[in-house]
Each structure stands twice: as structure tokens, then as C-alpha cells.
UniProtKB/TrEMBL annotation:
This is Choline transporter-like protein. The chain crosses the membrane at residues 30-53, 151-172, 234-255, 261-282, 314-347, 359-384, 451-482, 502-526, 605-631, 643-666. It is found in: Apical cell membrane; Cell membrane; Membrane. It is a multi-pass membrane protein. The gene is SLC44A4. Pfam families: Choline_transpo. Choline transporter. It comes from the Eukaryota. The keyword GTP-binding does not apply. It comes from Sparus aurata (Gilthead sea bream). Keywords: Antiport, Cell membrane, Glycoprotein, Membrane, Transmembrane, Transmembrane helix, Transport. GO terms for biological process: choline transport. It catalyses: choline(out) + n H(+)(in) = choline(in) + n H(+)(out); thiamine diphosphate(out) = thiamine diphosphate(in). GO terms for cellular component: apical plasma membrane.
Amino acid sequence: MSYSFLFPGEPAEFDPGFNGPIKKRGCTDIICCILFMAVIIGYAAVGILAWLYGDPRHVLYPRNSTGWFCGTGPNKDRPNLFYFDFLKCATSVNVMATALNGFQCPTTQVCVESCPGDFSALFVDAYFKKPAEVFNQSLCVPSVDLKAPGLVSPIWLACASYLFFFSLLLVLGRCLPDITALGNIPDNFANVPGLPSTINDTINVIKNGTGDVVNGFNAREIGVRIFEDFASSWPWILIGLLIAMVVSMLFLLLLRFTAPVMVWVLIIGLLGAGAYGIWHCYWEYENHRQNSATISEIGFTTNFQVYLQVQETWLAFLIIISVAEAIILLTIIFLRTRILIAIALIQESSKAISHMMSALLYPLVTFVLLLVCVAYWGATALYLATSGNPIYRVVALNSTTSGCQSINGTVSCDPQNFTSSAYPDCPSASCIFIKYNDEGLLQRNIFNLQIYNAVAFLWCVNFVIALGQCTLAGAFASYYWAFSKPGDIPMFPLSASFIRSLRYHVGSLAFGSLILTLVQVVRIILEYIDHKTRSAQNPCARFLMCCLKCCFWCLEKFIKFLNRNAYIMIAIYGKNFCVSAKNAFMLLMRNIVRVVVLDKVTDLLLFFGKLLVVGGVGVLSFFFFSGRILLPGNTFRSETLNYYWMPIITVIFGSYLIAHGFFSVYNMCVDTLFLCFLEDLERHDGSLQKPYYMSKNLMKILNKSNKAAKTDRKKK
């Protein structure tokens, strides 16, 4: 049945010169192509500026409180960083800001040659001693000279007041405590009288083994153990992923033989599940007929188990399931021909892939391009976040004197050449890193450049996905429009389609990607607004926000569907994006029932395929990594793993990605052959002048045939 009266459009007309993707075509959507190239050039310029002015060492390497990196320059012989009060690191509120600031926790930090290996703290008698007798010069801010006259103890911000470290936990050059040795802390180190409350709190947290700091460092220990598990099990993880790849490939290739059986088994299983539900509801209904209260007697209650003891509840379930079962059964009866068409197209897609095995490898190209986009975006964001020269100011550790008050935080300094003796009226003066310069032209526009970086990244990602869809569509269209398969299939159809897409249709692919990117940007803005205003929203505002987010989610899904089919038409006919999108949409709407049936049957099969691959490989990996399966001659033992579930999760997640990559190619093949099939029905009538290109199985289902084939049979 055709729905052309609802979506008229213009059915495709017969073209005697058409026999597949058009070879003679021109560039499409040139304006959008120029805009996309301009954005790419601008994106490259932003990356260059970020590379020139940014310094990722702020994040990757430890840096002391004066802003100098450990292991370079004046700290060449001091590669490690020591924190005076690491509790403030673990309980820092803005974790992201701390990370982008090179783990500059709100506590004094110094570069040390090696991490201290003992635990010590200051007692009350330290207040009556000279600083040089109490503190260790190597654990003080470099600009502080403990032998300088006039320096009064204790100087808590300039030198470490207690030590806690065990050398096995060096993380990225930072001295971090080993929580497993908590019991080694002497009792007299907790609640030392006279110490500042913050230091006492820190010692108590360490002693008791509680608080965010312990959880943070326990997380680091877990991370080390997980890394050890990966290091010992990675060959077997790769074998598991290889098995997932082989199973996915075999599943797709065997669909040409197993698709009819699998589809009808799943359909019969669905009907059987519905029939069992009807029987069970009737059985429960009969059991509660005698001693059962009514809904009116129970009223409203939050204990839903009570409703399951009511006869009326099971009667309602019985009616609902019976109606659903009847609808499904009638739908299958009336749409059986379209289900057969969907099965035939799925079989034809499997046959097409068997003739173009290279198409199964194309997701690797898409993955590499997406990886380049993500790496460039991440590097640019990192360099932009660390741009700007560091600013140092003279800060007085003891600002009670008038000489210190006049210079405290107002005088710039150079940490390399700074000495506290230059300020005789303020012996506790120190050159401290304050912030990065944010007054330059680049620094004032960092936020705008980060926004540009994010939008350009989304556009590039969507373009890469669009390029892959258009390339695969062109290759599979070459298969369908080959009259004698496989003899008429052109050489290297995948490579030819890729070259055509890049040579002629960059503008069209960029146009569709831009529309999708704008919708995604709106969705991100809505999520940001919702996150920032959630606490101040009333029910009406929350409802409105929920409706907006739902509408734009649906719009994004629709645009992805429209773009996908537009790229297929672009790959075949070489027209611009708007014309291709309109033609594809009208063609699909004229065959809306076939679209729905094919979509659901394909989704059902692919879901079953993913479940088979991921579930099968996941169960196999569970039995192997848990030690329930022992291979002869295998040196790997599950007892050597700290957390055997981590390799299992990795194999399951990797298997899903592999299955998704293979099945996305198959899904694109089904969609392409379906559009070609609809075009074939509208263009041709099976005559000698207009023969069908579809397979014999499809013609048999539709009771159609080519007259040329009939003539040949009569001659025989």
C-alpha cells in the first residue's frame, strides 16, 4: 500500500543511463564547504595560539608554592614535591580547578630530593627554640633562610610542621602517604598541645584513618592494583576482544541463512511470552476470586504488594495483556508480507557485506579520525587552560610588623633571584606564586576560545561520522545497482565512494553536521542552565525545562535520522543536502509502513546479535578470569588478580564497542539497500526497458519479475 496521497512528492522517474552511484557529479553546498574550511583554519589557529602561550607542564609536572617546577631549573636536583598539609589536597572543593592548576593544593609545597621516610611533629618545646633547631631547611620554602636573624618560630606556612610519607607511593612525582601504615603513627602525635587546630585535625585524621584524605589515597591504592591486574591479564583481554570480533563477523555473514529462522523464532517467542502472561494472570485471578478484598476497600497505599492480592488487579492485567497480544497478532498477520520483505533485505545486506569485507574494517578509519579529533580538542583545551605567565608577589608569613604590612601582597618579585634578606624590615617575607596572568588579550578571551574549541570539536566529530555514513552508503549502493551480481560490482567500491565523498560533498556533509551540532549545543546549554538553577527552580520551571530537554532530544534523534538518509541519497545521486534530505524524506513517507517494519525487525535482530556477542563473551570471560576454566599449559592464574572483575568488565565493554562497530556497518547497509529498493520499485516495472535490480527473492515476495527472465525461461 502506498501513502503518496499523504506525502505526494515526485516519485523517481526512469533514467536509462542510471546504473548506480552517478560518476559525473559536481561539488555541492560550496558555501558551507567554505565555512567549514574557515572554521578548520580558525581551529588550527586557536591550537597554534594555545601551543605558543600554554604550558601543560603546569598540569603534568609538580610545582612548588613559588611556581617553580620540580626537577628543572633551580630545582634540578629536587624532582619530588612534598605537601605540608595534604588533608587540604584531598578535601579541596574545586577538584577540576585544582587539576588544571597542577595540583596546587591550598597548602605550602616544596621540592625535595627524596621524600621523607619518617613521621615527626612539633611539640610545645618547639616554640622556645630557634627555627634552625626545629625545622629542616630542605622542607622549607626556598626563599626562607632559617639562619636569618629575627625569624621567630614556629613559621607554619614556610616550613613543614609534621611529616608523613612512605616511599612506595610516588604518584607523578608527588609524595603521597601510604594509608596501610597508619598503625605506625605513635599515639603521642595526636592532639599535641599548642599546635594549631588545623594541624591537630590533620594528625587525628591520619591517626584514625578516617575522612576524605584516607578515601582519596585508598582510591589511589586501588588504582595501582587495577593497573597491576591489567598488566598481567592484557593478553587474555585481547584474546577476548578478538573472539568478540570473530563472533560479530560470523553473525553478520550467517544472517543470509539464519535471518528468517531468527526473526520468526523471536516473533513466536514474543507471542508465547504474551500467551504465558495471559494464562498466569487468569490463574492468579481465579486464585483470588474467593478471599480477596476490592480496590475500593483497600484504597490508596504505597505498599504495592497489597494490590497483587486483589482480584481486580489481575483482571486488569489480563485485559491489558490480552489486548496487546491481539494487536501484535493482527499486526503480524496483516504485515506478514512486509516482514518477509524486511527479512529478504536483511539477507541481501549480509550477502552485500560478504562481497565487500573491507566495509567491516571501515569503522577503524572512523575510530582513528574520532581519536584525532578528541586528542586535538583535549590538547587545545589543556594548553588554553594553562596559558599566561605566572605572577609572583612578596607575601609576609608574619604580617604583624609595620614593615611587613606595607609590602604584603603588593610587591612583585622574581622567585629565582628573591632573598628574604632584601627586606630587612620583614624577615618573614617570601616570594609566593599568586596566579597566572589573565590581563592579556589571549587570557581575557580564554573562555570564548574554549567555547570555540568545544563547538568546532562537535562539528568535526559529526562530520567524521557523516563521512563514514556517506562512504558506506556509496559502496553498498554500488552493490545494489549492479544488475548482474557480483560481476557488475565496480572495483574497490569503498575507496571510490570515499574519494567521491571527499572530492564533491564536503560541503553537504558539513551542512548536515552543522545542523546537528547546533542542536547539540542547545542541549548542552539547557543542561548547563538546569544544573545551575536546579536548587532555585519551582515545579513549573522544572516542568518547562524537562519539556524543552525532551523536545530537543527528539529533535536531535529526528535530525540524525534525516541526515543518515540524506547522506545515502547524496552518495547515490550527488545532489546537495537540502534536495537529498527532501527526496529521502518523501520517499520514506510514501512507504512509511515498510520503514517502520524494517526498522523494528532490524533493531530486533541487531539487539539479539549484540546480546549474543556481549553476553557470550562476557560469560566466557567470567568463567576464565574467575578460575572456573583452566586451559592446559596456561601460566595465567586468577589468584594473581586483585580484582578479577576488572578484566571481565573491560572485555564486556570492549565487546560491546566491537559489536556496535560491526553492526553499525550492517545497519547502514540495510538502510542503503532499503532506499535503493524503494527507488527500484518507483523507477522500474520489470519490462525489457525497465528491469528490476532487486534480488529474485524480493521479486518473488512481491510477485514481480523481469520480462527478460521470463523470455529466457520460455526459450529453454
